[in-house]
């Protein structure tokens, strides 16, 4: 919804589509930006992919992308020569879904947006970046984003940045289990300790598995880990500042979707297992995540940490 609205405002013809959709309109979307708000749409949700699209942007959550069948995906992506750009995905899923290598492009979205209500989306304040693999079609597609405060970067290979984002997203599960934002979670000493343990395990797994990581221009996980280890007290005041940057994992808990909530941490556990590692903290988080649906959120990071030790 966020990208569709911005691209529509930038002069592109935008349509949404998904598995099993009938052809029907999508209501107007109100997008709340740090500097104001705008409306866009209505959009068309076609039953069949339109031929000759400039680009197809795949913004499915990781667990949905992992579960989709190739025939369904090819129908959604459509034929043509335009790039099929996967956001925050991984190579195995892209290869499995049958898109020709020449059309596959990887993008990394470094921004936080929250759905306030149906048709109402807020982009959280702070630096926002969309990073994409080099493609003239994607360069044209994203050319309007900077005027909305979103930096656009083009790279030859985005997989190392996607691997770094996966490491950063490992923190989404413990933060969501406390019904918190990352800033408020890290304001507590127990939250900082847990975050450092989870990130350290992730980096060890990536290194042992031979998966490269690259620096992210926003909230780089290696920089975050170094700060947690060397200057932990610098996070202490963040929890007193109002913040609505709630992550998608928390929203999945609120909607009763634990599969989405645990998918990212399960992925790093699988990577570690394939490399002969047992990731204690991420595995324990997965085991405790089902507790939310029955008993509710943890009161604070201290309670969560005690349950994991």
Q: What descriptive keywords fit this protein?
A:
309 residues; alpha/beta; Rossmann fold; N-(1-d-carboxylethyl)-l-norvaline Dehydrogenase, domain 2; 2 domains; five-stranded mixed sheet
Would you give an account of this structure?
With 309 residues, this protein is α/β, with parallel strands linked by helices. It contains 15 helices and eleven strands. The longest helix is centred in the middle third of the chain and has 21 residues, at 189-209.
Radius of gyration: 19 Å
Strand content: 15-25%
Mean pLDDT: 86
- CATH topology of the largest domain, which one? Rossmann fold
Question: How many angstroms does the end-to-end distance come to?
Answer: 40 Å
Largest beta sheet: strand ordering: 5-6-7-10-11
What would you call the quaternary organization? single chain
| Count of domain modules | 2
Biggest sheet statistics: 5 strands, mixed
Q: Give the SSE string.
A: HEEEEEHHEHEEEEHEHHHHHHHHHH
Enumerate the spans where pLDDT stays under 50 for 5 or more consecutive residues.
none
Q: Tell me, what's the shape?
A: globular
CATH architecture of the largest domain: 3-Layer(aba) Sandwich
Quantity of strands, as a count: 11
Main CATH class of the largest domain: Alpha Beta
Topology:
Blueprint: H1 2-9, E1 24-26, E2 29-33, E3 36-40, E4 43-45, E5 56-58, H2 62-67, H3 70-77, E6 84-87, H4 91-96, E7 104-110, E8 113-117, E9 120-123, E10 128-133, H5 136-141, E11 150-155, H6 159-169, H7 172-177, H8 182-186, H9 189-209, H10 221-230, H11 248-254, H12 258-274, H13 280-289, H14 291-295, H15 301-308
Parallel strand pairs: 2-9, 5-6, 6-7, 10-11
Antiparallel strand pairs: 1-4, 2-3, 7-10, 8-9
Helix pairs in contact: 9-10, 9-12, 11-12, 12-13
């Amino acid at each position: 919804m966020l990208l569709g609205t911005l691209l529509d405002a930038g002069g592109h013809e935008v349509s949404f589509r998904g598995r099993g959709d009938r052809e029907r309109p999508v209501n107007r979307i109100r997008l709340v930006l740090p500097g104001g708000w705008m409306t866009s749409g209505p959009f068309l949700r076609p039953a069949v992919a339109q031929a000759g699209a400039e680009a197809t942007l795949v913004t499915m959550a990781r667990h949905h992308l992992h579960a989709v069948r190739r025939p369904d995906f090819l129908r959604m992506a459509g034929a043509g020569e335009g790039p099929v750009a996967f956001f925050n995905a991984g190579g195995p899923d892209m290869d499995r879904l049958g898109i020709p290598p020449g059309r596959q492009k990887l993008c990394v979205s470094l921004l936080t947006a929250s759905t306030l209500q149906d048709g109402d989306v807020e982009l959280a304040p702070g630096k926002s970046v969309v990073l994409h693999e080099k493609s003239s079609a994607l360069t044209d597609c994203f050319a309007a984003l900077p005027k909305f405060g979103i930096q656009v970067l083009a790279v030859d290979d985005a997989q190392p940045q996607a691997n770094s984002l996966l490491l950063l997203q490992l923190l989404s599960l413990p933060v969501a289990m406390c019904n918190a934002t990352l800033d408020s979670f890290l304001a507590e000493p127990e939250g900082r300790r847990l975050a450092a343990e989870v990130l350290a395990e992730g980096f060890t797994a990536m290194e042992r598995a031979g998966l490269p990581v690259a620096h992210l221009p926003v909230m780089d996980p290696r920089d975050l880990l170094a700060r947690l280890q060397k200057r932990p007290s610098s996070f202490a005041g963040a929890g007193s500042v109002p913040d609505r940057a709630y992550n998608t994992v928390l929203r999945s808990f609120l909607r009763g979707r634990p599969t989405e909530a645990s998918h990212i941490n399960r992925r790093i556990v699988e990577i570690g297992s394939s490399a002969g590692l047992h990731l204690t903290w991420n595995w324990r988080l997965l085991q405790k995540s089902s507790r939310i649906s029955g008993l509710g959120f943890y009161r604070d990071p201290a309670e969560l940490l005690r349950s994991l030790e």
